Amino acid sequence: MAGSKVKDMSLAEFGRREIELAEVEMPGLMAARKEFGPQQPLKGVKISGSLHMTVQTAVLIETLQQLGASVRWCSCNIFSTQDHAAAAIAKAQTAAVFAWKGETLEEYWWCTLQCLTWPDTDGCDMIVDDGGDATLLIHEGVKAEKKYEKDGTLPDPSSTTNPEFKCVLQVLKDCLQKDPKKWQKMAAKIKGVSEETTTGVHRLREMAANKELLFPAINVNDCVSKSKFDNVYGCRHSLPDGIMRATDVMLGGKKVVICGFGDVGKGCAVAMKGCGARVFVTEIDPLCALQACMEGYHVVKMETVISDADVFISTTGNKDIITCEMMAKMKNNAIVGNIGHFDNEIDMAGLEGYPGMKKVNIKPQVDRFVFPDGHGVIVLAEGRLLNLGCATGHPSFVMSCSFTNQVLAQLDLWANKDTGKYQNDVYLLPKELDEKVARLHLPALGAELTELNKDQASYIGVPVGGPYKPASYRY
Amino acid sequence: MAGSKVKDMSLAEFGRREIELAEVEMPGLMAARKEFGPQQPLKGVKISGSLHMTVQTAVLIETLQQLGASVRWCSCNIFSTQDHAAAAIAKAQTAAVFAWKGETLEEYWWCTLQCLTWPDTDGCDMIVDDGGDATLLIHEGVKAEKKYEKDGTLPDPSSTTNPEFKCVLQVLKDCLQKDPKKWQKMAAKIKGVSEETTTGVHRLREMAANKELLFPAINVNDCVSKSKFDNVYGCRHSLPDGIMRATDVMLGGKKVVICGFGDVGKGCAVAMKGCGARVFVTEIDPLCALQACMEGYHVVKMETVISDADVFISTTGNKDIITCEMMAKMKNNAIVGNIGHFDNEIDMAGLEGYPGMKKVNIKPQVDRFVFPDGHGVIVLAEGRLLNLGCATGHPSFVMSCSFTNQVLAQLDLWANKDTGKYQNDVYLLPKELDEKVARLHLPALGAELTELNKDQASYIGVPVGGPYKPASYRY
Amino acid sequence: MAGSKVKDMSLAEFGRREIELAEVEMPGLMAARKEFGPQQPLKGVKISGSLHMTVQTAVLIETLQQLGASVRWCSCNIFSTQDHAAAAIAKAQTAAVFAWKGETLEEYWWCTLQCLTWPDTDGCDMIVDDGGDATLLIHEGVKAEKKYEKDGTLPDPSSTTNPEFKCVLQVLKDCLQKDPKKWQKMAAKIKGVSEETTTGVHRLREMAANKELLFPAINVNDCVSKSKFDNVYGCRHSLPDGIMRATDVMLGGKKVVICGFGDVGKGCAVAMKGCGARVFVTEIDPLCALQACMEGYHVVKMETVISDADVFISTTGNKDIITCEMMAKMKNNAIVGNIGHFDNEIDMAGLEGYPGMKKVNIKPQVDRFVFPDGHGVIVLAEGRLLNLGCATGHPSFVMSCSFTNQVLAQLDLWANKDTGKYQNDVYLLPKELDEKVARLHLPALGAELTELNKDQASYIGVPVGGPYKPASYRY
Amino acid sequence: MAGSKVKDMSLAEFGRREIELAEVEMPGLMAARKEFGPQQPLKGVKISGSLHMTVQTAVLIETLQQLGASVRWCSCNIFSTQDHAAAAIAKAQTAAVFAWKGETLEEYWWCTLQCLTWPDTDGCDMIVDDGGDATLLIHEGVKAEKKYEKDGTLPDPSSTTNPEFKCVLQVLKDCLQKDPKKWQKMAAKIKGVSEETTTGVHRLREMAANKELLFPAINVNDCVSKSKFDNVYGCRHSLPDGIMRATDVMLGGKKVVICGFGDVGKGCAVAMKGCGARVFVTEIDPLCALQACMEGYHVVKMETVISDADVFISTTGNKDIITCEMMAKMKNNAIVGNIGHFDNEIDMAGLEGYPGMKKVNIKPQVDRFVFPDGHGVIVLAEGRLLNLGCATGHPSFVMSCSFTNQVLAQLDLWANKDTGKYQNDVYLLPKELDEKVARLHLPALGAELTELNKDQASYIGVPVGGPYKPASYRY
């Protein structure tokens, strides 16, 4: 598929080699190719994806393509594209890619628009989304068109101070002037979206609650085989990876504060413990706090450790977790990073605007902010996801779990496009499929699964082949 | 309260000292006494409890009593009573206790009957149950009475080969001849039961599904502050404790097989790893199996390790996990134990009946079964729960979590006895109460809980004071 | 061999069953029986042993006996005898045993005397010692005899306030009056002692430095296969075992202070971490302190954590580690125990003599000392070794390492009694024998040892069969 | 100091920023600057160093320079130079540097020669060596000069097939033709060398044993504060760092084989365990093997796991650890790396020469060797040290321990140049200095060291200020 826009095509060969290595580490996707490839269940289906354009995503893209789909792709983060991965896909023409590392906000939304805009047709059939930006653009587009229909109002970028939303409004304004039905036609065509993250699901649930959701959504984020693997074990891998690549700092013996003890926090805390660090946890939820205690972590308020600790990692999905005031009290060269969600977990704006602040770039994605009193803090990836910014994100194996869920979700959405199974609401994948994803990943680790005999299955009241647990089971 | 029957009153003083020590380790129960004691919300309420009569249970019993209740108690396992705990309660007359270590099956069901039979009244107002035997006796009693009303049939102990059910039928037959309405009057009086275990909840759900449940039930087992603490961390403590007291065997360097990787299995596996053992896991559920892989355990079928491993622990709640055929293949002096639920996890019957088998009692709760070929296996606690049989069960702190849920459940059942909140169905405790239980345990560990500010709470859409997570959250 | 004095012969059968179980866990000793038994290298040799009379020691005793020796034994600690082990040996007459749990100091030294006094001969040929009390009695005896020879002075028990040394002097006084050459004849006969502990080795080195040592000594304590296993992994097992049996306290989430980070402290710290505790370490040696930091422990002074921590364990071999003043500042029901050496690691005398102190015995080996302000501390095993007092000491497997060294040491001392290899000095076992001990324990764990080829051996300059490391290697 | 030859001066600014960050992580070196800088104890002393030219080494170099020394430096590995570090030193002229990443063997030995050759003088006063190449060149130089003096023979590069030694002979031949006394004059001037590694110390000991050592040597490698920190904790950090940067492979759930369980192996094994891998260990030494068992690792022969494991890491210092024959049996994309010493731990030559082998470069320092049957192995850093080749080596903090030992060694050599304390032999640093190095690193970790009181010190027979342990203590 032609039409890609990537930074540097010369990296394509390197990207292809890395994709081939990743394939070995993504047994779920490879098994899906083998199982479903022959029937071509996505033959002719147009899929637009907005999800970090990495080597692993390349394997997802090419899996969808091998199942029959046509694919267009953009990244969901201005820093997260691996240019060699993008180049390899672009060169192979297995999808059209619009993504490069270090996009401006304008470029970012331009890429998202290209990803959603299909030549010679109204748009895509399905969306793969991460964080919900593709879905947001469509919904905002429809809203803008309706408003324009009603009273001729065009979106006004100057109406907002949010620099990102300014770009969105500009894109919508431009589109509206070219085709005032663009987004409505697109929305009508879409059979569904499968969403990768907590944040995206949160947005979808709000839209569903307000009856504003324009197409069905499958919540991939809350699959057990995603949330209990990607979040926990992905971060266990990529947090130390990111910190080490960025700073080369020895974590053994250091005091590390993990803000939040959800799945991401759990993975981060155990990783730091594995490195020999002393781990402190901050929590608002007494249940998670008590779990942290039982795991041998110190549960503290930030003020208790703020001037003692060496590393501070935000994992919450909330905002204002590490404030400028806190950073002013940290010791010299304390390391500050975010592996939660948006960059507002750390008060980057406050830091940038702090009177007398000096920002020294150490190397890409590593900055030292020097306070007027001379002490500095090392901020990773400008407050954005440090595992993506400073390392290469989650490793292939765990992304294979997430992405196999994506593939099964896309298959199920498409297979049921006319059955009425999915309304304009947010759905979990059925537990059988969730278990299937796990099952596809066991052989690569040499794991042997025990089989229930009929007698045992009936004793505990489950089918021999599963699902084995009630929906409420917490794993 | 008079009327107790315990083994040895001379142990009362020792029991009282242990109860006083346990109180310091059960901050949730002590906080409940402090918060609710003054209002006496259970004033005059009759509570019958069937739950391991240990030191920790004594603190639960006396908490209920301090909140105003009258209490009668029996154990839910023939081996699990701590005689000194029973004696201390009996002596203090804070409850009537019918329990001793090493009951026969006849004695066990006699005790259960005494616990449910209140002098000068039809029975109790509420039940605390563990495994569901008290609830079962009432439901079977009602069934027998109705059958008797219909056609005069008396329960026939000889109609079953199950030795335990034989006892149940004998008890019901005896009761029926004295008072043919006993169980129906009792059931009518009961406002609800709070159930402690997976197995008990399973039974309750079946009865509710069949519309046979005679009163409301609160599922304490699935509170996060119970299942994710008692099961995981309680077993992390009590598995090595039981094995070490029973066998004094060094676990470092040994190969240990944990059958099942649910919450109990997770706690057991990490405990064995903490002791320096090499841990193997057997699983039927691919999701749990993949979790075990990610935690660094070897996921294998039993046949792969049967002749190599040193210790085999069943944690499943299912049956026939460790069969006689498997034990025949184990190496000499392999240790076999159960920390799951019923003793049928290990094929004790097969072992006892194996041709040529020699059973050598090493010490109480530790037997060596010697196969005709001369190799023996060490079976703990006769296949029953080894942490109760060979050690003292879960430690006070984690039982405080479970039991504080029991107290809050009993309070909520009683407060809502006339509100219609609870029908004859199975309910979870509201998440606020679940979080409250955790919250009451944090100060004892010196944990500092962070508070959301309003802005953050609204950003993630939760109340400042919680609950903080959706019902589906897995912790 | 007749003549034993033990507490309760009725326990013999139970002891025998435990000894048989222990044999399976002591592969080094069983291999030694198999390798050396046929030649009877200790035929007719008289060995006196002063070492905790436990089940494991029984296997050592019977190994020495099966290699041909006649054996007399006493315990080296008034609390450490396992009466069933003593009874089993006494009943089998495989050695003469003088030991019971809970000896008085007078009884203790009487037992030591009986152990060293052989009917119809001057004494033993060799000694197995633990802590050096048997060696001390002989050396003090010789000193007293020489003084008596010189000026007729008898030892005077009233000359010392040390209650233990008072007993020693009484024993020597009594002996002197019966046979004024007893100890000199005995010392002349002795070919050597093999010593088990740091403390005993320390005493031996002092005597050697002062030219006072009367026979050769082999330092078993500093074998790698002893100190790096018994101290580290033995304590990793027996510390939590002792705490759990004594208190049933949940260690998960608790703050535990380990005083000292030598081998014992290292084993204790990792055990507590494995239980989910938060571990603090106190150290005087900057190298050990830095190791503790690197392992993720908090290195603190006692005053920093004294009022916060839940458990305090002394592991040092030094004195006054946990003072009365410190205990006065601990929180209510803080647990205090010693796994180092003598009971003066904890200021028991200060505690007993504290004005207004109330001592409440909870159960054997567990006392609550209540300060006048009402807060109490739980002291384990009266300040003596808690793993011996509250549990059963190190497990068989690790004792098999220590005791196989003892056997090899006794064999080497005897084989070289006339070669001049050993002078009146303190020797390490040759590294070949140390490696051999390890080698004998690997098959039981299914470990496969790799063999160097000749080319590799010559490349690194070692023999193919070892020893593989220079003497200075730290493991 | 002018005269440097580095690859890219434009990197100097980046290097300087990294050096400044590293200084904060190297508290021992900074404390040495503070303590000794004012007296300028190395004033005018010429030091030549051959040690990986990294950012951390830059801090060492500038510490020596700040204590008064003039410094010339080269790297001791053709791949290990960090060009930005070299550039920063060269630009600041704090030393003359001859080093760049990716030297040819000819260049490598040219750099070593430049490092040792001082303008206008016979050579350096002292050497800092890592692996012994600088010392070797001098000793071989002297040998060649003596032979030449004797019979006029010039070194003959064609006399050897070893490509590296060919270069050495060429250098010596060239030198000899310019100045036939160069190396003898240099050796006469040198007061000593401090050596960083096991391999270098091994060479020095051989020379000392053969009476060929030309100047005193201090063995820094075997300082406790070096070997027990750099080897263990440095590798714990840098092994996962190297693997992750090179391959992005998820280590959780994988089977990793660590060849060797010395200090490096111990650090590597625990790092892999911390990542959630299943760890297998191969060992030749039964003591180390038994330690690995006790730590919960599987001790196996290579053939047992060769076709199952995912990652193979050699840590031995021996050769032929991972042979070509083994690699032929590995599974597809098994990862193979060396963190021991020379690249002959892995049979790189065999691999390169394997009939039909295809070598695919994935990215710098990562190659896939594809066997004729189509399966490939991923070899890191061409079989050289993967933590240096694929990551940035040990982190600053742990290098600060090693390098502070180097500084104290250089100070002690110089202070005793005329005292006779050091002969032409190999010496350990005195334990006081070793403890001092540890002591200087504790404050940065917030560690509080406990002080012995006099009474305690005398009780255990050590000075209050240390040293605290006998020389034989194993830590």
In brief, what are we looking at here?
Chains A, B, C, D: Belongs to the adenosylhomocysteinase family. The structure is a homotetramer of 475-residue chains. Chain A is 45% helix and 14% strand.
What would your notes on this structure say?
Four copies of one chain form a homotetramer. Chain A has 475 residues and is an alpha/beta fold. Chain A folds into two domains: 5-225 and 393-435, Adenosylhomocysteinase-like (Rossmann fold); 233-390, Rossmann fold. Chain A has 19 helices and 16 strands. Chain A has helices at residues 12-24, 27-36, 55-66, 83-92, 105-116, 133-151, 163-178, 182-189, 198-209, 224-247, 263-274, 286-294, 302-305, 324-329, 348-353, 386-389, 396-415, 431-441, 454-460, and strands at residues 5-6, 46-50, 70-74, 96-99, 126-129, 192-195, 217-219, 255-259, 278-282, 298-299, 311-314, 334-338, 358-363, 366-370, 376-380, 426-428. In chain A, the strands form two sheets. Chain A has an eight-stranded parallel beta sheet, with helices on both faces. The first copy, chain A, has an eight-stranded mixed beta sheet with strand order 10-9-8-11-12-15-14-13. In chain A, helix 9 (198-209) links the parallel strand 6 (192-195) and strand 7 (217-219). In chain A, helix 5 packs across helix 7 (163-178). The longest helix of chain A is centred in the middle third of the chain and has 24 residues, at 224-247. Chain A is globular, with a radius of gyration of 23 Å. The model of chain A has no long low-confidence stretch (mean pLDDT 96). Chains in contact: A-B, A-C, A-D, B-C, B-D, C-D. At the A-B interface, helix 10, helix 12, strand 10, helix 18 and helix 19 of A face helix 10, helix 12, helix 18 and helix 19 of B. Chains A, B, C, D: NAD(+) binds at residues 197-199, 262-267, 283, 339-341, 387, 394.
